[in-house]
Specification:
single chain, alpha/beta, Rossmann fold, 6-phosphogluconate dehydrogenase C-terminal fold, 2 domains, 8-stranded mixed sheet, globular
Length: about 280
Amino acid sequence: MKVGIIGLGLIGGSMAIDLKRKGFADEVLGVEAEPVNAAAAGKIGLVDRVVSLEECLEESDVVVLAVPVGTAVRLLPQVLDTFAKSGAADKVVMDVCSTKEHLARSVKYHPQRRQYVASHPMAGTEYSGPWAAMPGLFDGHACIICDSEESSPKAVRAVEKLYETLNMRTIYMNSSNHDVHTAYVSHISHVTSFALALTVLDKEKDEKHIFDLASGGFSSTVRLAKSSPDMWTPILSQNRDNVLHVMDTYIEKMQAFRQAIADGDEDGVRSLIEEANKIRRIIR
């Protein structure tokens, strides 16, 4: 089994480490467009070989697109075109992107569509690049496989086995539902973290002690603001409608807090906090 990973950042690099370490892949090939990252990935041994895209597609049994979703939308049809030209009917390509509808539409009528499996491992950190890759990143987390009925059973089984190797639990849904859910549980968290960071940075221009006074609560809330703009700009663009809907709801809740605080309405503030505390039933 040869696995080719296109994009050797946090997700692709971490996947490379564990797929080789846990015996899913006999050899892991890597493709990395950024020369510095490619050199680093080779030097620290994330993959067995750093190769060209053409070599990766020719040699790999399973190809993983671990690139920003804007790049994946352009690259996925090219990968399937290559499979078609070479007659490689047994090869599988999967992605690990945070949005799915645009990807699904980009290959909906492609003759090799059934060789593609849309997936999203719900794991990560705020760090990026090959230096951020780590073993065990995916352990115990959920993985979403989208539109499985559009893929061949053999391709789906290959991807299921890959995620089982990474010790992930699999959830199935369609692309549209996936994008709605990730807008609520992932994308809005990043937007609010970016906005909070900007708010504090504006204050920091006048008050240098703000970071000295920042506690662990602030650090945990704003840590996502360190996330890569190359990754998050296309995510927020492609999932625009869902993200805007969630942002509107979030702004309504912020306005409710603002009004209660402005009115000196302690009962109102308490009521909002108590309502928010119900999240304990879901997140412990």
